[in-house]
Amino acid sequence: MPSTTPHRRRPLLLLETANAASGVGNSIVMIAIPWLVLETTGSAAAAGVVGAASGLPAILAAPVAGLLVDRLGRRVVSVGSDVLSAVSVALIPIVASVAELTLPVIVGLAVLGATFDPAGYTARRSLLPDVAEAVGMGVDRLNGIHEGIFAMGWTLGPLIGAALIALAGASAAFWLPFVLFLVAAFCLGVMRVGDAGQRARAEATERGEKLSAREGAVRGFTALWRDRPIRLITFAVVILAAVYMPTEAVILPVYFEGLGDPGGLGIVVAALAAGSVIGAFSYGWLSVRLPRSTIARLILVGTVLSVLPMALLLPLPILAAAAFALGLAWGPADPLMTTLVQRRIRPDEQGRVFGVQLSLFAAAPPVALLVVGLLVESIGVGPAYLVMAALLAAVSLAMILTPGIRELDHDLPR
User: In terms of C-beta density within 10 A (0-12 exposed, 13-18 middle, 19 or more buried), how is residue 68 classed?
Assistant: First the structure.
């Protein structure tokens, strides 16, 4: 192996270290914020309010973040976002040490921190083609690695967060995310790769292409909408997320709480997480063996076939196996969607499209959680899950049969 190989791998190692650090840091914050609210107020409703408020910035800020990525540069925005995220989480233990952490203060700090996350996530995703080019790796393979590592970080974070809370308390637990966000910023700060988005933007300027401020702001929406395959897969993933998230956050907790079996809940959620990690990593392997349209069909069919036995709330071993299969089927969805944007959208517009998609994915789960919660209250957990499974099956069948799914296999010249 040539002696330059370790040097060539450096951008990949730096990007994925930042990716893992960000995933772990954000998932620690996700568990520490509601715990802090419960410690402070003793109110589950207050914890729900903070959770809902924390989700709003992603809906509103993600399209703006995408615009900044395309205008200012992928690496610059990622570094800036991670630094600001680090400052925002450090404010929580700092404020706790000098004043009382009231609910409005916690809400404000949680919203502040959540405002910066979309920019970092969007910028790192936009960097994938640049890193793939620098290290000589196929971008499809890197997409699977990137999403798999992020999923691993998102899975490990709550375990680390729970241990930190037990050892040091909820407010002190935020110091580790502070360090992790700085690690992510440092890794991308020292990374040296090109920026295809900035090159494409410069070339467009040389050709005399110039967008008004309004056109530039809405370009992500228009680019996504005019591309039928990307529009199709985005809609499909939004529907999948609307079923996947309530499964983990509402259906399973309510079901196992009724059984008095928290251990069963842990087993099923762990199986779901393990499947999603393996599924994401598998995308690179699948992408060199199967057309993208076939991968999309496998995702849709696999999700339906997994959710249906879960909706019947069968005995624990079957439920855990179905949960693993659901994660496995869902795992390749994000890498597939990333690949489509890379293959079909101009480099100087990719950040905005990723931002719009992130906004949609942030908006769908809270709506689904609300609807599913009301359904569970009114008709019970089993019937509510069957309704969700039937909706998913209908949407998946429509997606599989639409002629547009074959267009997923085509790359557009840019």
Answer: buried
